[in-house]
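Let us begin with a simple case.
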Amino acid sequence: MPRAGSRLEDAFGKTELELRAERAACLARIARALEARLALLTRLRDEAEKAAGEARIAIRARYEDARREAELYRWALKVQRGANGLHDDRLVDRMYPIPRLR
């Protein structure tokens, strides 16, 4: 007959695994959202370089809106990492640089 303590330990272990999986999934969702915004920024930057006049101004305005959103997602990723004990934000900054307009 199994001991009550071992059943409790098993339940705790399963719960811990579920929590770790959810934490990893949350980090992955934020990272994917950030990657999508960074790809948009790269595209808008490239379009702005080819455009002129009013079109360039409009694209640059869209770029600035998208940049603010990307920075928010990058911040959210840093916060989520910190909540999981990963406190070195330099890795995030290196992995997910914000493309700059030229």
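The second case is a distinct protein. As before, the sequence precedes its structure tokens.
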Amino acid sequence: MDNLRVGQNAEQQNNNNNAQGGGIMMKVSKPATFDGSRDSYSDVWLFQFKEYGSITRVQNDSKARLAAGYLKGKAATWGRSIVILSVVVAISQVVIMVVVDSLHHYRK
């Protein structure tokens, strides 16, 4: 019996079939790399990447790192700068917390 329902995405349809023991094995194509050039379509790439992540059940906290692996050229350079910036911000937050904590203990 086919359990396809209107409004369900491919993952939900696959889950319906798997729940009844009639699982459908799908080969999911990996998204293309994105180079950030003027002729590339970021909205199409992002849609394809989100669908890939949904179907393959990529955890939310891993999606950004996985997406970074599909960037190349200018887009990869930009992505690397964002990662470096986020590390600098995280380190700065730790330093500020240590300084504030030290000042708090010093004033006691």
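Residues 73-107 form the longest helix (35 residues). The chain has a mean pLDDT of 77.
Keep these points in mind for the review questions at the end of the chapter.
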